[in-house]
Backbone:
């Protein structure tokens, strides 16, 4: 029986690269997101490469949509073996400008929705079958990121969730890990000019931005039998950014 992998936010960026990489590794892949067009393009890519994919629109912030999506996956595939919680969202703002609603919106999508999906998969598949792999996506540098205090805090919660679940769910044969990614050259970075992207690359010890494929390769490893003794861990895929720190100058002091 083929292994089945669920990837949220599977239509673009790291989610797309992960879906393709897992399909190449032999998984049947189920992807979800809020926009049907990119999901369908990825489903077609996987099919052309000889894989099997299911694509469905799902707003993971809504528990009933999560349950409906997992219902469909279980009905069509019969099991789930991997869940990659890739979907997320954030905006940049100075900390003092982040409203309670803005803070809550980021945490709802990044933490609460990831838990909703993970919980649904655990109850319906992982715990009954006594096996499973959970991957969360965190941020690097892990110390915090200027103008992303709310988002970095949310991603740090996922790191802690990964280790906490490892303590409780290892008894069911479930492994949980977090991949903390640095600045990755996804479609989202195209809104920034070349000079800005070049400056970001200068703050990274390896001197360049990462690629979605480089993140997907690590996720594929973590969810494979080759990583069978790895759980509760945080793996940074960031070109050395976390080891270096913020890599820039702190904001100037403001006169009283």
Residues:
């Amino acid at each position: 029986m083929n292994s089945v992998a669920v990837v949220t936010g599977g239509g673009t960026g790291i989610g797309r690269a992960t879906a393709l990489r897992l399909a190449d590794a032999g998984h049947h892949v189920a992807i979800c997101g809020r926009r049907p067009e990119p999901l369908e393009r990825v489903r077609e890519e996987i099919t052309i490469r000889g894989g099997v994919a299911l694509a469905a629109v799902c707003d993971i912030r809504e528990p009933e949509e999560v349950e409906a999506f997992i219902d469909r996956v279980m009905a069509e595939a019969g099991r789930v073996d991997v869940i990659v919680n890739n979907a997320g969202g954030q905006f940049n703002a100075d900390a003092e400008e982040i409203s309670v609603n803005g803070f809550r919106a980021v945490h709802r999508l990044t933490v609460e929705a990831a838990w909703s999906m993970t919980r649904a998969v655990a109850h319906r598949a992982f715990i009954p079958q006594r096996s499973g792999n959970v991957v969360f996506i965190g941020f690097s540098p892990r110390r915090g990121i200027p103008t992303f205090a709310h988002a970095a805090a949310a991603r740090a919660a996922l790191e802690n969730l990964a280790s906490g679940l490892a303590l409780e769910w290892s008894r069911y044969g479930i492994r949980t890990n977090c991949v903390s990614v640095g600045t990755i050259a996804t479609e989202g970075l195209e809104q920034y000019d070349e000079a800005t992207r070049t400056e970001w690359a200068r703050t990274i010890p390896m001197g360049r931005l990462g690629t979605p494929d480089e993140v997907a390769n690590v996720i594929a490893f973590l969810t494979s039998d080759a990583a069978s003794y790895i759980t509760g861990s945080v793996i940074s895929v960031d070109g050395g950014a976390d080891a270096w720190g913020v890599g820039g100058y702190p904001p100037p002091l403001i006169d009283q």
In short: The radius of gyration is 18 Å.
